[in-house]
Amino acid sequence: MGLQKEFKPQRLDNYLEGTGLKGKNLNFLTDLSREQLYSLFKAAEALEPYWRTGINLLPGKILCTMFFQPSTRTRFSTETAMLRLGGSVISESDPLNNSAAAKDESFRDTLKVVSQYANIIAIRHSDDKRVFADLPVAEVPVISCGYGNITHPTQGLLDVYTAYRALGRLEGVKILVTSPDLSRARSGHSFALGLARMGGEIIYSGPSELRTPDLVMEKIKETGAKVTVHYDCNAEQQKELIAEADLVYLPGCSVPKGQGDRGVFMERAANYYIALETLQEIQKKTGKTVGIMHSLPRFEGEFDINIDDTEHELYFKQVSFSIPVRMALIASMVGLS
């Protein structure tokens, strides 16, 4: 059989360098090759033992988080990841009211100014076109923590990593991304982009009037991955799609409470509801345990809460992996030297 190729001890810095992300931004997961994504996964696995205790890789480095939209998991896990790496955090969770943006400072100028304080910036913003137009002025790498309705690559990276750890493989995996509103399902689209890059198959199911953005579909197809779309399915057709999948991804609703578009989401949610009974029937019939993923926060009426206590639950496990994944990402983008 012979020796394995390049047999030698594994080094974290080799994995970080292998991502090719040092000094670069992260906008879409398809910006990375399959090899670069695997390097990130290997770095995350190496950092898993330190997600609670920390490891002093980035002393003196500063992360600035600016979230122009509400966030709990993404902001907290990104900031915690930097602290666990031995760095520091400066943060503004309401820049529209508490930063110079409240005085009409342009986003372009904000990026240029914050670049003088931080070694890396994490941004969440509702206007993806504005962000992409102004990103070139940033003098340090910028992590997208959600831009508009299009992209949320750190969530997508976390979700693809969770699938990788849960299934032990990604090539040939089938995922169903299903939502009452695919037009704003940025976390689901980012997961689909990452899985497509890794050789997975994407199945979309949603209403015909709220479709996946053309840009996302184009990027998925550019990877060569198989993608199918099903519109306006009835309950039986939806069950068949769930049975076909290895994982079901629910992107949830990013529209704040009290805004009209959220009401539209909730009105349609019943058509895409996932019952524990459905998963148990599939398991009994095929022997396959279909995993349920959700970007959180969840809302009553999206899926059976009793799934929480079963082997189908992956959404809280996703949260558990969020810190080592983001530790790997930040360390890759900042670099160890």
Q: Key features?
A:
Rossmann fold; 14% strand; globular
Task: Describe the 3D structure.
The strands form 2 sheets. This protein has a 5-stranded parallel β-sheet with strand order 7-6-5-8-9, sandwiched between helices. It starts with 11 loop residues before the first helix and ends with a helix. The protein is α/β, with parallel strands linked by helices. It is globular and about 55 Å long. The protein has 2 domains: 12-151 and 321-334, 3-Layer(aba) Sandwich (Rossmann fold); 153-320, Rossmann fold, CATH 3.40.50.1370. It is built from 13 helices and 9 strands.
Annotate the secondary structure layout.
Blueprint: H1 12-18, H2 34-47, E1 62-67, H3 73-84, E2 88-92, H4 95-98, H5 107-114, E3 120-125, H6 128-134, E4 142-147, H7 153-167, E5 174-178, H8 186-197, E6 201-206, H9 214-222, E7 227-231, H10 235-244, E8 247-250, H11 260-269, H12 276-286, E9 291-294, H13 315-334
Parallel strand pairs: 1-2, 1-3, 3-4, 5-6, 5-8, 6-7, 8-9
Please sum up the structure shown.
With about 325 residues, this protein is α/β, with parallel strands linked by helices. The protein has 13 helices and nine strands.
Q: What's the Cα radius of gyration?
A: 20 Å
Biggest beta sheet attributes? 5 strands, parallel
- Poorly predicted runs: none
The largest sheet has its strands arranged as 7-6-5-8-9
What would you call the shape?
globular
Work out the helix count: 13
Q: How many angstroms separate the termini? A: 39 Å
Q: In the CATH hierarchy, what is the superfamily of the largest domain?
A: Aspartate/ornithine carbamoyltransferase
Kindly identify the CATH topology of the largest domain: Rossmann fold
- In total, the number of strands is 9
The CATH class of the largest domain turns out to be Alpha Beta
Averaging pLDDT over every residue, what do you get?
92
**How much of the residues is beta strand, in percent?**
5-15%
* Annotated CATH architecture of the largest domain: 3-Layer(aba) Sandwich
Q: Assembly type of the shown chains?
A: single chain
Write the element-wise H/E pattern from the N-terminal end onward: HHEHEHHEHEHEHEHEHEHHEH
* Total tally of structural domains: 2
Structural class: alpha/beta
Percent of residues in helices comes to 40-55%
